[in-house]
Predict the structure.
Amino acid sequence: MAYAGWLGTHIRYAMKNKAKNKLIILEDVPEHAEAIRLALPAVDYDCYFAITLKEFNQIITCIVPDLVIADINLPDGTAFDLLPGSLESQPWPVLVMTSFGDEELAVKVIKSGAQDFIVKSPEVFKNIDHVVKRNLRDWTNLQKSRENERKYQVLFETMAQGVIYQNSQGVIISANPAAEEMLGFTVEQMKDSISFDPQWKSIHDDGSVFTGDTHPAVLALRTGLQVKDTIMGLVNPQKNEYIWLLVNAIPQFKNDEVKPYQVCTTFSDITHLKLIEDELKKAKEKAEGSDRLKSVFLANMSHEIRTPMNGILGFADLLKIPQLSKESRNKYIDAIELSGKRMLDIINDLIDISRIEAGQVEARKEKVDIPSLLIELLSFFTPESENRRIELSINIQLPSDEFLIDTDKTKLAQIITNLIKNALKFTKPGGSIELGCNLDDATHLYFYVKDSGMGIKRELQDKIFERFRQGENSKEFEGVGLGLAISKAYVELLGGKIGIESKLGEGSVFYFTIPFGSSVFPALASRESPPEAIGIMPGLTVLIAEDDEISYVLLRESLKLKSIKTYRAKNGQEAVEMIKNQSDINLVLMDVKMPVMGGIEATKLIKEISPGTPVIIQSAYANQSEIQQTFQAGCDDYMTKPV
């Protein structure tokens, strides 16, 4: 077969099999080229044949070879024309062939950059596949070694830690730029010196001098063990002052030798730690003070939790009295409900502050109509203010009745809610509270809650927003004192600031500002609109997937009052099986956390089996990431316990 035709055939074949190794065989003797071709499995290689260097140069414009097999003598040159002079500069491995063995020639070829050298013979051609595989493997290993060396060199040159290498006598042989910067000497100045030379003026943390036998590098060389975290001070001649280093010395060994042939010393500048030692002491004192505050907080929280629990358990016990009047029964039920709401407020505050402390709170941008939100909150708190005989009013000074901004509606409402609750708590009957909003400037809104309460001492005003802080007379009022801390965190999350103006005995004004506009903070991924409400009508059949007995009974009895038939599944797997087997189920109430299979996984399977069956997730967990997971699983709505 003509070589041009052979080349064209193999180029077309190679286009369909790109995963094979690409070989260029540069051989002007047809019999030798054919012998190589027959010995190389077609499934492993795409072979490209050339007779001359000119043909070879044409081929490499189209492909990048994995290996070149070249005869030493060619019609228009020699294999030396393919070799750059060293293996390090070779772009691909070259295997040079010759018809006669010549040790001097072999050495010359290898020094010129060839990967290997072989002498042609029938036996060599027969085993050429093994030779090729060996050379490909050696080249791959060489490239990996080169890459590792490049990575190491980049790391050595750019790492922030100082690095010094010393030989077995402790003499410095190399150092990186970070070491030069920290020590104030160039590599040339450091070379051939020892690390415990008097010029370093090395001292211990206590000020004593580092002697030769206590120096980390010397210890590592003498013992063969790593020396860790030694604090050392030395003089930087450029700065003419002491710097402090945290030093590690690592002995290095060759093969199985017992004694290290060199030591690698790494060090970091910890001078700033010395300079802020006083600040650390202050921080320690502050932490101890914080611990005391937490202890007071926990004691108060214990009281706040036990108080509503006492009401719930006590009035529940009174409801067991056989001849209890209807009036007393309703009164006790109202007390239980009030205590339950108080308990829920405490739990919600604890959950919110825990999420804030853990950094798990995010802002979710949406369009918010500020006047509508404020009027809605006013309406919500009006009944409570009337019961307390406190005048609650609103003062909105905005350019229009509809004023839309981009912000997190839930967190903005929570901030204002906490401030109103705080004002109601500390305002006596006959007093007043004013909720207001106006433009602070062209880019910020100003909100305030003004009350005629007892006011706050000036020395406490800077601390009132701190976690675990409460007002001076806090023991007279219910609550764990986290509302203002939560409000401050939410205001800052929305990009604003919060503050207070107060006079003891005259009242307080809590105010905050938040930015408004289309780019206040990045919007998180959210659904375009909330799901349509799912109505639960008499005559429906509902599957309750709930492992907790009390929660199940509550849902069952509540639905029973509406003449709704129910089934129960104690875990997600049972719920999936019931959907498969019960065709009359109209809706699923799915708990999230259940044994065997959780609610989210079960929802996915149910939606695969019966896409049209609505699934409402009901869970005691209310974090945003879980809510997103439930909707991604296919649920139709989400309810937070208590339902």
Remarks:
- Confidence is low (pLDDT under 50) at residues 518-531.
- The longest helix spans residues 277-318.
- DSSP finds 20 helices and 24 strands in the chain.
